[in-house]
Amino acid sequence: MTAARGRTGRPPLTEERKAEIRRDISRAAVELFVAQGVAATTGEQIGEAVGVSARTVWRYFPTKESCVRPLLSEGIDRAAALLREWAPGRPLEHLFDRSVASGLGIVGGAEQAAVADLVRLTRTESGLRAIWLQAYDEAEPAFARALAERLGLPEDGLKVTVQAAMFNAALRAAVERHIWRTAAPETDPGEAEEELMATLRSALAVVGEGVR
């Protein structure tokens, strides 16, 4: 009696494992970009830092600059989740209180430092700047959906569309201002988090005031 023929080789990766590999590639890419610049970094180097082949890197990402996307998209997803759960009527500037933001991973952890390094690089690396702006452009519909759920309004309505655009712009401006102007790499992590929270609250307070 012969054994049944079946599929041989490694089992397929789970979605969780694929997401983990993408995050590992993203963090490794940022570390290499900081150390030697984008132009000098190769797919082979990124793969070697993670323990995968360059072919695997290109399977997940079309370009080396796009390798940083998971660090951005995950933070945006968490911000959208926080916005969706925020009770109507509460001041928007308290959305990013540290205790709440820490619970959702908005601040704290190794990824915060990697994102800070990445945002600093967007000042001089045009390819990374393009990825950074594209991530926020794609975030706006996610913020609109979150606001629509929170307010019980259609996500394509004018009010939700404008509010999502304002929230999106305030979030990006606050993060850039904090990292570009006040957050040096050697800053104490605790102090940096408090400064970031203060900057986010100030930006969202401006959104809450509206245009007068």
UniProtKB/TrEMBL annotation:
Q: Which residues does UniProt assign to DNA binding? A: 42-61
Residue ranges annotated for the HTH tetR-type domain, each copy included: 19-79
Q: Which keywords appear in this protein's UniProt record, sorted alphabetically? A: DNA-binding, Transcription, Transcription regulation
Q: Does the keyword Flavoprotein apply?
A: no
InterPro entries referenced in this protein's UniProt entry, alphabetically: Homeodomain-like_sf (IPR009057), HTH-type_TetR-like_transc_reg (IPR050109), HTH_TetR (IPR001647), MftR_C (IPR041347)
Instruction: Answer yes or no on keyword ATP-binding.
Output: no
> Can you name one GO molecular function term for this protein?
transcription cis-regulatory region binding
Q: What is this protein called?
A: TetR family transcriptional regulator
Q: What organism is the protein native to?
A: Streptomyces phaeolivaceus
